[in-house]
Amino acid sequence: MSRYDETDFNLLDEPWIVVLGRDGRERELSILELVEQAEDLTTIGGEVPTQGFAITRLLLAIMHRALEGPTDADQWAELWDDKGGLALDRVRAYVDPLRNRFDLFDDEAPFFQVASLQTEKGEVSGLEKIVADVPNGQPFFTTRSAVSLRRIEASEAARWLVHAHAFDPSGIKSGAVGDDTVKNGKGYPIGTGWSGQIGGVLPQGKDLRETLLLNLVAYEDNPYVNIGGARDIPPWERDPDSPAWKERPPNGAIDLYTWQTRRIRLVGDRSGVTGVVLANGDRIVPQNRQNMDPHTCWRYSEPQSKKHKTVVYMPLTHDPQRLVWRGIGAMLPTVSGRGTSRGGDPQPRLAPGILQWIGDLGSKGLLPERYTPRVRIVGAEYGAQSATFAEIVEDLLPLPVILLRQDKPAVGQMATNAVDDAEHAAFAVWSFAENIAQAAGAAPKSGAGERARERLYAALDGCYRQWLAALTPSTDLNDARAQWQRIVRDTTYPVVMELITAAPPAAWVGREVRGQLLNVSRAELWLRSALRKVLPLNDIRPDDSTPEEMVLA
């Protein structure tokens, strides 16, 4: 039985999702308001980027169940071509019978919570347990103080509730009455939330309507994602969870979008939330979920494969120290497609199912040839034992559909080769910086090379994104590759000049290293020769007289 209207907080009707409008203004909307206004919105936000990822996947679960599909690419195309919105009538018809399950403070089945959840001593934790923080305990937003965590609005509590199930760190949780795994009043670590175990890849369109539709993978007509089976349903269609939990396999993408990693009870009402009971929920392991979750790349794991005596793929998480475009090959179906043969060896990487789906839509002519979704990269890096947040990763990379089409693999392969060009040039710069450092008397691998390499990558970051976004079906691939190599060359030399200008007198004089005189002049000759070899298309003829050992480090 639900509370009276003046005390409930129903997520279908109450504003709680942070959105950005086309006018650049941020506001909060309810679920139904968002569906109705999706064409006038650009993205879903929140206190941290991972909130938007978690809430978007929640909305996808609602859309899939409301539409009972899309069943195939043709039905998807009807939705895409219908400019009347996001099938609001069908969404209303779906959620109205389930209305009480979306009440944040329902007496019996509060949304994403367990009404009876309590510890043996009745303890209630502070809100810092679900508000994402960095290891030193300081919130991501420096304006948030300890006082501000004594009470938060119900709308913000709803956002953190969804986020906790998706990204909550591991570590010891409150021991819930009814959980047989509790020892000494504690729930011992079972791992992070499911979304925290993956490297989120979320394609975005020009507005929120396009974003949601791009991510609505058809039930049939796709070999990448198990979605929409009889048991692939969200929590609000199941009996309410009890404090007890278990490890179980997921039933499909909808199940994973709404995975109940924790058992939670918010303490408060529509006027505000002051505390939380946070206990362990359904444990999930990441091995071989590549046919379940479409929003991540996957990597072949030899240790896991040996352990389980079968081929095992693990989610490929994001490295916050590495620019996202440097790993573009893992995202492209044309390079890391599941149908690509590597002889008898397992594919080292598998592209996200969602990008393979979008590539197929392009191949079937259901997306314009020049359509360019912006792919949002979202993920969390955790600290020791994954018990705290260390860093939240967010990036945005334009990926023209032509890069994703497996029937036209040359463009994607060329984009990956362009990254190799940058990597080779960066290694040459690393070698040059290391040689200068050694010429001045430093020990090998002093760190000078790594600093120079990272400066070059930072300088190339915007260049690669612009070059990538300009690729079209009519692009001459040879010309585009040559243009990119010229960009790399022209971007490299300012970094090199900085190193030369900063070189101390001792480096110009030089010294003998491994039987050869090493100084700035010789290091620069080796560098220029190396760049001519690794960037042969930029109108400079390769020089075959490069010394065999360019690097003495």
Walkthrough of the structure:
It is a single chain. With 553 residues, this protein is an alpha+beta fold. It has helices at residues 31-37, 49-67, 73-81, 88-95, 154-167, 208-214, 253-257, 302-308, 328-331, 333-336, 353-363, 409-439, 448-469, 477-502, 505-509, 520-534, and strands at residues 17-21, 26-29, 41-44, 173-174, 186-187, 200-204, 262-269, 272-280, 298-300, 313-315, 349-350, 374-382, 389-398, 511-513, 516-518. The strands form 6 sheets. Strands 2-1-3 form a 3-stranded antiparallel beta sheet. The protein has a 3-stranded antiparallel beta sheet with strand order 6-12-13. Helix 12 (409-439) runs antiparallel to helix 16 (520-534). It is globular.
